[in-house]
Design brief:
Layout (H helix, E strand, L loop, with lengths): L1 H23 L3 E10 L3 H9 L1 H7 L1 H5 L4 E5 L8 E6 L3 E11 L3 E10 L3 E11 L6 E10 L3 H7 L2 H22 L2
Antiparallel strand pairs: 1-7, 2-3, 3-4, 4-5, 5-6, 6-7
Helix pairs in contact: 1-5, 2-3, 2-6
């Protein structure tokens, strides 16, 4: 009987730590990676802002090539939409909300499965040391609505950061090959 009481106290303490600790965690996350690409900003911009090109280098297409994809709208324009549904990549959509040619692209990411979440993402393109080099920065940020999400977001930089690094490396290869 004493062992059951001790186990019950431990379980209650762990639950309390989870919820109280979760309330103290940050409500937001942000992930960012940068890469210098030896190609003009117009080439790099086109490989990001046109989802037909985005599919050639993004890390999630590489992870699950059999993902069902639907692309609609005018490339590099607000409303250009990429919807996906896969076993490993889940289900969701990414829509361009703002596009400044050769300078910036902003996206709204909506994840619907296996969990629901909304995030903003974007790319900036800046000249580097010469006109044929572009500094590309890829960012993603979001806000949590639950304790569970806050715990998950603690590791978001490690989880998504690796994908961003891999994707930027493949964007570099594609852009430098097609300049």
């Amino acid at each position: 009987m004493k062992i059951i009481k001790i186990l019950l106290i431990i379980v209650v303490l762990l639950i309390a730590i989870f919820f109280i600790g979760g309330m103290l965690l940050p409500k937001t996350y942000s992930v960012s990676r940068t890469k210098i690409i030896n190609a003009p900003d117009s080439v790099v911009f086109n490989n990001v802002a046109n989802f037909n090109n985005f599919l050639k280098w993004n890390p999630w297409t590489k992870m699950e090539p059999s993902t069902k994809v639907e692309i609609s709208g005018i490339p590099a324009q607000p409303g250009h939409l990429w919807k996906w549904k896969g076993e490993e990549t889940g289900q969701g959509q990414m829509e361009i909300t703002k596009a400044d040619p050769n300078s910036k692209v902003d996206f709204l990411l909506t994840f619907t499965a296996p969990f629901q979440s909304i995030a903003t993402s974007g790319f900036t393109f800046e000249p580097h040391s010469n006109p044929n080099e572009t500094k590309v920065t890829w960012t993603m940020s979001g806000t949590s609505s639950s304790t569970m999400e806050r715990w998950m977001y603690l590791n978001m930089d490690n989880m998504i950061g690796k994908d961003f690094e891999s994707g930027l490396e493949d964007l570099k290869k594609l852009s430098e090959k097609s300049k």
